[in-house]
Amino acid sequence: MGAVSVDELMTTGPVIPVLTIERLEDAVPLARALVEGGLRPLEVTLRTDCALEAIALIAREVPGAIVGAGTVLNAADFDRAVAAGARFVVSPGLTDPLIAAARASGVPFLPGVVTAGEVMRGLDAGLNRFKFFPAETSGGPGALKALQAPLSQCRFCPTGGITAASAPAWLALPNVLCVGGAWVAPADAIRSGDWPAITALARAASALG
Predict the structure, then answer these.
(1) pTM over 0.70
(2) Which of 21, 37, 48, 184 could form a disulfide with 54 if both were Cys (CB 3.0 to 4.6 A apart)?
């Protein structure tokens, strides 16, 4: 599949699902359920033993998905995720090795930031698209709204504790292009294989935009 720009990634839909896949057999039906509901970018967190295999399976078997890797902590993780088929990479923070890996790969990179200083460090590295994390415990929408005037060239994907109820307040901010959320793929629905329920949650999330 062709390359995707960071802005295309962040504007394809209002919500990027944040997925923790415990069983490899859930990867493809989960991705298909979310894509059917209108959510194409999918962040598979590298928190489980099967995460890289899940990324590879989704990349191969679900052509409508734009699969990426989350919870990427170092350059080795970054390279492994891209080799598996990740089309974007998300990290909880911003480090020099991750900046170098992103530059070398050309893959869209959303590093986590929470302070003006962290954003400025990203700007120095040529980045102006960020994950605002952890969103709900770092001051909520008011905190990110305060960054708009001094850092107006930046756009964010708030992630961390966001729900269907709180997402609209984030999406209303002028410097927010999308939000990341796990609520569209509840663990109990994944465990029980309730893919229609996940598709319904994805449809509702798609309508937030």
Answers:
(1) yes
(2) 21
